[in-house]
Design goal:
The chain is mostly helical. The protein has nine helices and two strands; from the N terminus they run ββααααααααα. The protein has one domain: Rhodopsin 7-helix transmembrane proteins (Rhopdopsin 7-helix transmembrane proteins, Up-down Bundle), CATH 1.20.1070.10. Keywords: Cell membrane, G-protein coupled receptor, Membrane, Phosphoprotein, Receptor, Transducer, Transmembrane, Transmembrane helix.
Length: about 350
Amino acid sequence: LNRSPPPHMGAHILESNFSGNFTPAVTEAGTVFPGYLVVILSVLMVTLVIVVVAGNALVIMAFVVDKTLRIQSNYFFLNLAISDFLVGAFCIPVYIPYNLTGKWMLGKGLCKVWLVMDYLLCTASVFNIVLISYDRFLSVTRAVKYRAQRNMTRQAVLKMVAVWVLAFFLYGPAIIFWEAIVGQSIVPAHECYAEFYFTWYFLLSASTFEFFTPFVSVAFFNLSIYLNIHQRNKNWNASISAQTASCMPPGRRTPGSRLSRDKKIAKSLAIIVCIFGICWAPYTLLMIIRAACSGECVANYWYEMTFWLLWLNSAINPFLYPLCHTSFRRAFSKILCPKRQSVQPQIEAQSC
């Protein structure tokens, strides 16, 4: 899925594909916006860039100033923040003049670089959500083994690198070499989109790995976590009832505290995944509908609204960290209010 801002405003012509990636195809003469509209669009886009860059930079800085955050599960949030930060630092700023003028004026070489980064970052974001869900799944259903490996930084880094490698190979080689293999370019001058943009069978195959498989995986992990916690909660309540009925003193509270922790893990994961679904699912569904009816059954303004939701996902993610994680909230306070915040070292940083 491509998280670029809406590629068509006014006279721009929107073309989309099965996987959700989109790039603009504009009229040959381009479009000159009224002055007030240029100002409004520029302010909105620049504001989005600032929020995305500042919010995700704060997450990255948190890992620098607070060593207690450096556990395996939190590294995957760092990986997601890096991909979102690069969206705001590179993809959106490069795209803004293209969106406003309707013409790509940065040359074919930079066009390919921008496309590679755009597809890479969007795919990496999806894979990072899957990795976070899988990590939470292991922490709840394989608790003993997970705790023994949670401080293995090398293993976490290998998984982070694997996300970027897989994300690159999904679209990167095709973007770089498609023209050479086919023998000609179909992209007109002053436009910038992938050569395979209208090759439906490639896009449908890629979308299986980019969206549908990750969606099924995340749904499975969340359902497994819920069922595991539900069963353990029943067992815990039954154990407490048995101890009370037999007038026995309550046992160790470790299972109960661990269950409470896992409920928080499930809650935070549900929030993050739900926001992800809200931001991405409408666009995905509309693109499938558009492909089925050749773009004639849904008004264009609905597509534009879903495009903005994709971009907003990169801006919302950083705000979910302090909402769901005490350790991140503590680190953010240390960065933003260094004089007022007194951070006491903790034996173990536990994310919710």
